[in-house]
Amino acid sequence: AAFQDPRFSPLSYDEYQQIDIHISILSQPRRLPASSLEDLTGKLRPGVDGLIIKEGSRQATYLPSVWQHILDPRQFIAELRVKAGLDAQGWQNTEVFTYTTEEFY
C-alpha cells in the first residue's frame, strides 16, 4: 500500500523514513447472525471485534483498531457500510462476520 495502492499517493522518501509498521494477523471470520441493526450493535465487542459486512457484490472490513477512532457501534457500522459503497442505514440482505486480530508493532 505504501507504493502501489492506487487509492493513495506513493510515500516519499522522507515519509518512508518516518513510518511505523503495524501487522495485524486476523482470525478466521465467523458469521454473526443478527436480525436487525439493533441486534448487531448489542452483539459487537468494541475494541475486540473486527467487522466484515457483505451485501451483494459489495463488502468492506474494519479492523478492531478502528474502534479507537469510532467509539459508537452504530457509527462504526454506518461508516463501514459507506466504505463498502452501501447506504449507511440499510440492513436488508447484509451478511456480517466478526474476527479478532493479533497485533505486532
Structure overview:
This protein has 105 residues and is an alpha+beta fold. The protein has a single domain (27-104), classed as Dna Ligase, domain 1 (2-Layer Sandwich). The chain contains 3 helices and 6 strands, in the order αββαββαββ.
At the fold tier of CATH, the topology name is Dna Ligase, domain 1
Shape: globular
Question: How many helical elements?
Answer: 3
Q: What is the domain tally?
A: 1
Regions with little confidence, pLDDT below 50 for 5+ residues: none
Largest sheet descriptor: 4 strands, antiparallel
Gyration radius (Cα, Å) is: 15 Å
Q: Report the end-to-end length measured between terminal Cα atoms.
A: 17 Å
Indicate the structural class: alpha+beta
* H/E element order: HEEHEEHEE
Strand order of the largest sheet: 2-5-3-4
Return the average pLDDT rounded to an integer.
94
Q: Portion of residues in helices?
A: 10-25%
Q: How many DSSP E strands?
A: 6
CATH class: Alpha Beta
Based on the structure given, which CATH architecture is correct? 2-Layer Sandwich
CATH superfamily: Hypothetical protein ph0010, domain 2
How much beta, percentage-wise?
15-25%
